[in-house]
Amino acid sequence: MPDRPDPQTYRELVRQALAEDIGAGDVTTRAVVPADVRGEGVFVAKQRLVLAGIDVAREVFAQVDPALTFDVRIADGEVCVPGASIAAVRGSAASLLTAERTALNLLQALSGIATLTRAYVDAARGGVRILDTRKTAPMQRAIAKYAVRCGGGANYRTGLFDGVLVKDNHIRIAGGIANAVRHVRAAGITLPIEVEAQSLAQVDDALAAAADVIMLDNFDDEMTRVAVERIAGRARVELSGNMTIERVARLAGSGADDISVGALTHSAPAADISFEIDT
Length: 279
Description:
Radius of gyration: 23 Å
Structural class: alpha/beta
Helix content: 40-55%
Distance between the termini: 32 Å
Strand content: 15-25%
Number of strands: 12
């Protein structure tokens, strides 16, 4: 299992999600379920999936009712087959019902990211590293990137502060790749410098500027082959743009080092998980 995220990175998110859902109170449960009824709720996989976010789901129940017990049966990063029992929660039936949807929303979303990431990693067959991007839902980046790790992918920069990526708009404003890279070095920044290239001419400019990493943005397969040959190991090569699972399978042996996929965190379908309660 990947290193777990610090609970501080999602505790406030859970609090806000519960406040959004519960508001002034769970009126249906309060009317229908006596306070003294106890139950057990079980998370059940309804599809083959890679699990991610079990600690986040646990936090939801803990915030609703600290007296609930949470028994994890499958760890993050493991594959769940349809019908698998992921975790069981025991205690007040009313608390289980109130926490159910928020816990499922987060667990399904994170497991969806992990499941899609694993599909890309499997398609790469070890020939290239699969990276995520900054295309995450606001305030959910830490747990989304954790889900990517659960799926076997790797994290690119956390934010704007821990990596240099000179993109098309930077290049346009600076008046070219050479100027943009020169400004980065003049600022005393010692982080590796990555430059986005949208043409073979820009690949040449990035090489001339001694960029550490060159991102080939929206290159077709033939242009990718030519660019990788031209770079010839003088910089790391990242492929990006329209990276479907099928393209990753084709380009895994291209000689590139990394393939970044925004879809991992902005378009992953939620995994199908249910929460079944018995008293």
